[in-house]
Amino acid sequence: MIIMAQKSLVLYFSLYGDTQTMAELLGRITHGTVVPLQVETPFPDDMNAVNDVAEAQRAKGTFPVLAGPLPPVQEYAIVLLGGPVWNGHVATPLRRLIQDTDFGDVPVAPFYTYATDPGDYAQEVNALLEPGSRASLGMSDETVKKTNQATAELQKWWDTVRPQ
């Protein structure tokens, strides 16, 4: 019998599918529970419009409301938290999740996807998750599409962040 506290929880937000692909690969590698984050009000289809919405949300500190219940993070040994880089920043749905969630003693290992330049994403997400943040992993959208390469990089990362 597998006890939930020994398992990983892969929580992610994906707008165009690359982070979803990465999360699903992580789910297979970790044998974890994979849960997509949904927002009550969908984002526009155009990335420039998404950036405008996200910039306004960051400026006001009002992040989108998440839809649906999430599993209790305290029942897991680790949370793998994924999202896309939006204009060099943490996607605002993840900002909402981090703001509203008490991770307690559960370590959180962030992963992220980016189209061109991740900017200071790793530093930003690690600062938001202090003190329970583990090493983050960023992967270009192009690498995510190369399943074998992506799987190898994710396995290597998982081997460094997994609970012992």
Q: What do these coordinates show?
A:
Pfam families: Flavodoxin_4 (PF12682). InterPro entries: Flavodoxin/NO_synth (IPR008254), Flavodoxin_CS (IPR001226), Flavoprotein-like_sf (IPR029039). The chain is of the alpha/beta class and 164 residues long. It has helices spanning 18-30, 47-60, 92-100, 121-129, 141-145, 147-161; strands spanning 8-12, 33-36, 38-39, 66-67, 78-86, 89-90, 108-114, 137-140. It has one domain (4-161): Rossmann fold. Helix 4 (121-129) links the parallel strand 7 (108-114) and strand 8. The longest helix is centred in the last third of the chain and has 15 residues, at 147-161.
Describe the structure in brief:
Helix 1 (18-30) crosses helix 6 (147-161). Helix content is 40%, strand content 21%.
Question: Tell me, what is the CATH class?
Answer: Alpha Beta
Secondary-structure element order, N to C? EHEEHEEEHEHEHH
Give the CA-based shape.
Answer: globular
The name CATH uses for the topology is Rossmann fold
β-sheet strand percentage: 15-25%
- Measure the end-to-end span: 19 Å
What's the structural domain tally? 1
Protein name: Flavodoxin-like domain-containing protein
Pfam families: Flavodoxin_4
GO molecular function, one term: FMN binding
Domain Flavodoxin-like: 7-117
Write the layout of secondary structure elements.
Layout: E1 8-12, H1 18-30, E2 33-36, E3 38-39, H2 47-60, E4 66-67, E5 78-86, E6 89-90, H3 92-100, E7 108-114, H4 121-129, E8 137-140, H5 141-145, H6 147-161
Parallel strand pairs: 1-2, 1-5, 5-7, 7-8
Antiparallel strand pairs: 3-4, 5-6
Helix pairs in contact: 1-6
